[in-house]
Design brief:
two-stranded antiparallel ribbon, 2 domains, globular, TIM Barrel, 19 helices, alpha/beta, 8-stranded parallel barrel, about 50% helix
Length: about 425
Amino acid sequence: MKQYYTQMEAAKKGIITPEMEIVAKKEYMDAEKLRALVASGEVTIPCNINHKALSPEGIGSGLRTKINVNLGISGDAKNYDVEMQKVALAHKFGAEAIMDLSNYGKTNTFRKKLVAESPAMIGTVPMYDAIGYLEKDLLEITAQDFLKVVRAHAEEGVDFMTIHAGINRRAVEAFMREGRKMNIVSRGGSLLFAWMMMTGNENPFYEYYDEVLEILREFDVTISLGDALRPGCIDDATDAGQISELIELGNLTLRAWEKDVQVMVEGPGHMAMDEIAANMKLQKRICHNAPFYVLGPLVTDIFPGYDHITSAIGGAIAAASGADFLCYVTPAEHLRLPDVNDVKEGIIASKIAAHAADIAKRVPHARDLDNQMAEARHEVNWEKMFDIAVDREKAQAYFESTPPADRHTCSMCGKMCAVRTTNMILAGEKVEFCTEK
């Protein structure tokens, strides 16, 4: 009997896989309905056949908004112990995906450890790793060299890969013709652009796209179609370069589905609030309702040090308008490699955006914990509030830093607490402040 390696192939043949069963249970969705969504490409379940520690998650229409945590070393910051602390935080706060964006030296030892131990989906950008893996300068790398790196990552168990296949000659022509304030801000996109300009060749991931798909299909790796021409400032949003590439990504989506390769499409990084909803609808239309993975978007450019907040605002609007997957942004964005505290702040901000959007989209059971928190606050039950809070330690530390004289209140309002006053009146008790001690 034939073994069905990809979730999409199984779904098209009417087979509900064990991974679909797990995701359906997590999402309170009928497994047959989920199977149909996977078959159509509206939902992806990234799960490399070699990632044995994975707890499968679905990304796409009708499901909870998922978040991704970026980490990895660079030439200026190469402490893998610190990166593992960041991994632990990602697991603690329920991030569904971790992308290893290491771009210095031999990275496969760290990546293999991630795959061996992480229940979260693991993603990579093979283009980042090409120079270190191949030990060649950019101009010396051949198209087949790039494919070798893709295969190496697939064999190691990576669940999804960002492949910047859409920045082909047509998209570059639109970018060059129109011009931009920030030009190309995608690291992988800029490297491919440089390679194309220096060699005079077509983007190898576009030219040899069918070979890329064959590798991904073999291990059931989801392709995350990278947006090399994403806007790097709000003034560049929704320009000819971005839209030209998006059109290419729509075609590449269909080609991947024909090969039973699951797809996500990546979206804008900086964008004014009034453009976000329209961009989400545009992507879904042009890319045939494939799951949409957005990098922010950041809604203003003048708050370095606070870009986890500018990103959370944009991410909440994007997800409420149809985006399915949010890439976190930390306070260190644009400034440095994030430290452990930056990573925590970024995760929490992204979780806030995703959860707020799920409430707005009426995702099944999205409000459950919020309703439980309301009940705990009504009861002025601090222990229950701390248990429900996403970050119990921070909530409890704030409360206990200025302890109230009466634990049935907090130090903000004291005995004038509105909840306490109303509860007493409704219980038939008399409220007296001057006589109380």
